[in-house]
Design goal:
Blueprint (H helix, E strand, L loop, with lengths): L7 H30 L1 E5 L11 E2 L2 E3 L4 E3 L3 E2 L1 E5 L13 E5 L7 H4 L8 E8 L4 E11 L2 E10 L2 E6 L27 E2 L4 E5 L9 H4 L2 E2 L3 E10 L5 E2 L2
Antiparallel strand pairs: 1-6, 2-5, 3-4, 6-15, 7-8, 7-15, 8-13, 9-10, 9-12, 10-11, 13-14, 15-16
Length: 236
């Protein structure tokens, strides 16, 4: 006489329970191991990294003077594993916890500053000498002064003064003495100091205004745009 088979309903119930248990374990692994140490998702909240990373709303933006038909907020994966074994390189797009003086919105409202997570491009690493030199430039026949960034004596690019964040004027909140918000005095980055700038130079609140990013505040390197689907690509 053969042993009786378990009822079909019991098998189904057990299978569902096993699947649920496996999913629970997977989620625990994601939140306890993968997310803290390997990969984390972020979205781009502003236009400071455009055109590399999009983060604009629909309509006309008075600050950037640009009009967009639709809102686009890139979602990216940040590789948190790499920087456990290597330091950021020049031109890396990295995510970090900004110093409190980077928050200008809350102090302007009479509120205490908060620690924001920002994404920028690494434009200076330990040992680099950075300087903003003021140079004349003709625009529609009118000569104007622009700030030009130099790294280790090499001219990188022009940084024209926008209506918002002007590199030849102090911001409305206290400055880190290591900031180069228009002064011609060069700074040398220390052993654990990095200089962050947005690709959208005219509309980025970055190290030009509030100083360097310390190594222990860096979260990871931007690696992939995964949403929207038509913008999916690997970031170099």
């Amino acid at each position: 006489m053969s042993a009786s088979s378990p009822a079909k309903g019991a098998v189904t119930t057990r299978s569902v329970a096993e699947i649920f248990e496996s999913l629970t374990v997977a989620l625990v692994l994601v939140f306890l191991i993968i997310r803290p140490f390997f990969v984390q998702a972020f979205f781009i909240p502003s236009e400071s990294m455009e055109p590399t990373l999009l983060g604009h709303e629909a309509g006309y933006n008075e600050q950037t003077r640009e009009k967009h038909d639709t809102a686009v907020k890139d979602h990216i994966f940040v590789n948190k594993f790499t920087y456990h074994f290597a330091n950021p390189n020049r031109e890396d797009i990295f995510v970090f916890r900004a110093p409190l003086i980077a928050d200008g919105e809350n102090p302007a409202k009479g509120l205490p500053p908060v620690e924001n997570v920002l994404i920028k491009r690494c434009m200076g690493i330990p040992g680099d000498v950075l300087q903003v030199r003021h140079e004349p430039r003709k625009n529609d026949g009118v000569t104007e002064e622009v700030g030009v960034l130099y790294r280790n004596g090499k001219r990188l690019e022009e940084l024209p003064s926008p209506d918002g964040y002007k590199i030849n004027e102090p911001m409305a909140w206290p400055q880190d003495p290591r900031a180069i918000n228009g002064g011609d005095t060069p700074i040398t980055l220390g052993p654990d100091e990095y200089f962050a700038m947005g690709d959208n130079r005219n509309h980025s609140n970055d190290s030009r205004f509030w100083g360097v990013v310390k190594r222990d505040r860096i979260i990871g390197k931007a690696s992939v745009i995964f949403l929207p689907l038509d913008r999916m690509r690997v970031l170099r």
